[in-house]
Amino acid sequence: MNHCLLEVEVLEAPQVRYTQDNQTPVAEMAVQFEGLRPDDPPGQLKVVGWGNLAQDLQNRVQVGQRLMVEGRLRMNTVTRQDGVKEKRAEFTLARLHPIGAGSGGGAAPAAMPMAASAPAPSSPSTASAPARQAAPRPTRAAAPAAAAAPEPPTWNASPLVPDMPEGDDEIPF
Asked: Which of 55, 57, 96, 142 sits between 20 and 30 A of 160, alpha carbons compared?
């Protein structure tokens, strides 16, 4: 039942450590995602990957990269230095989907766990991403090129329940 899919931006490079008992790799990284409404601040989250996903995170993910992460969300209770207990969300990674890795046939490899995908498309895409982003901008100024280039999809993140009038405490369904 607990299954999440988030579009995130990597804030900190993944750091790998190993468990004491069986030396399983564990990678942790900090990510940021947009708020639901335009005036909401971005949310931050710790993403944890185990085993082969931990090694893939370390080898293929860089600060500033945009990803689609898929996995489980859980809450941890942490005691701060001043003694106050605080709850923090933690995302346990199941699959990793690079965003903008390539236009031709990028949908099939992106649907697989990153451990099963080929390493070659990931590293050139991150190295040439600024060049790809800079190239379409001049062509958008021309009218024929702008009509032929598809616009990226936009997401409507507004709540499903409409705003209720003030003083009305009833649920509309």
From this structure: 96
Q: And the tokens for 43?
A: 């949310």
* Cα–Cα dist 173/80, whole Å: 42
Report yes or no on whether pTM surpasses 0.90: no
Q: Residue holding tokens 């399983």?
A: 24
- Give the SS3 label for residue 133: helix
153 vs 99: CA distance, rounded Å: 13
- Please answer whether residues 14 and 53 qualify as being in contact, where contact means their C-beta atoms are separated by less than 8 angstroms: no
Residues 53-91: tens digit of each pLDDT:
999 999 999 999 999 999 999 998 989 899 999 999 999
Gap between the Cα atoms of 157 and 88, Å rounded: 23
d(CA 76, CA 7): 22
Q: How far apart are CA 44 and CA 46, in angstroms?
A: 7
Q: Cα separation of 4 and 92, whole Å?
A: 10
Instruction: Determine the Cα–Cα distance for residues 40 and 33; give it in Å rounded to an integer.
Output: 11
